[in-house]
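#lab-general

N.A. 3:47 PM
ok so I finally got the sequence cleaned up, no stray characters, all 314 residues accounted for. can someone with queue access submit it? mine expired

B.Y. 3:52 PM
send it over

N.A. 3:53 PM
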Amino acid sequence: MTLARRITIRELLAAQGEAAKIRLLAGEAGLDRYIDHPRMQKPSLAFAGFIEHLSDYRLQVIGQTELHYLATRNKQDQKAVVDAVFNLRLAGVVVTRNQVLPDIILQAAKRTDTPLMVSEYSSSVFMTNMMLYLSQRLAPVAYQHGVYMDIFGLGVLITGSSGIGKSEIGLELISRGHRLIADDMVEFSRRSPTTLVGRSPETLRYHMEIRGIGILNIRDLYGAAAITDTKRLRMVVELVPWDQVAAEDRVLGEDGETDILGVNIPRIPIPIRTGRSLAVLVEVATRNQLLKQRGIHSGEDFVQSLQHKIDKGG
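B.Y. 4:20 PM
back already:
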């Protein structure tokens, strides 16, 4: 399940008002308007009369250049372009460097209930810092069922059908010194085109459900060393019934990938049946993935060596 992210101007002021040195000048009635994109815009062309690509769901930043250009136009043209911009019902407008605003901008913000803010920072500093915050706050999010663990420093998601034993394997891994990140529901956010970071939803954090025992607080049972809050996802282990895996895949393994938020993550299917030490197998799969990241592929090396002997008539 994937969710769109957004943040209201009210939430933005509460979270970043002090850090970004911003304060509200007008438009309090519009504080529940929201931003859904981390990139900001500067309405330079809009003040020249071209407003076609001005987004009402992005934060607008007015700096010295925009105000200096606006001052070069006559009063009638100034009012026309400012009214055209604010009639878009923008999510919010920030004026940088604590600049003194023309009255037409202040009145337009009040008339359209557009949040108008001012920051002490220059445009470049304000936009850099705000984009860092918004990129994380508005990163795409997907929710996946499974147990998410930190194993040997890698973020490993253990998936499989309901009742197959994911939580029990996670509990055994914790007892072997690995760390729990999330059980049952995992929240993944895409921080870059190739990076997914997983964490537990707030209400489930540090807890596991074990059938027959109930809800366990892992932090209370095992201590702070047994849990961690976030980790980059590097591998998915899929638990599958033994009879659903082809014989050749049981021997040579099956390299696959799974797509989460447009990022391809290595997927390792592990066949399960009575008597297999699944926690150990997950550990071995993780160690093997670490080797692959270093360019060492044990299965491929074995096949190439075997083929070489066959070619030589061995």
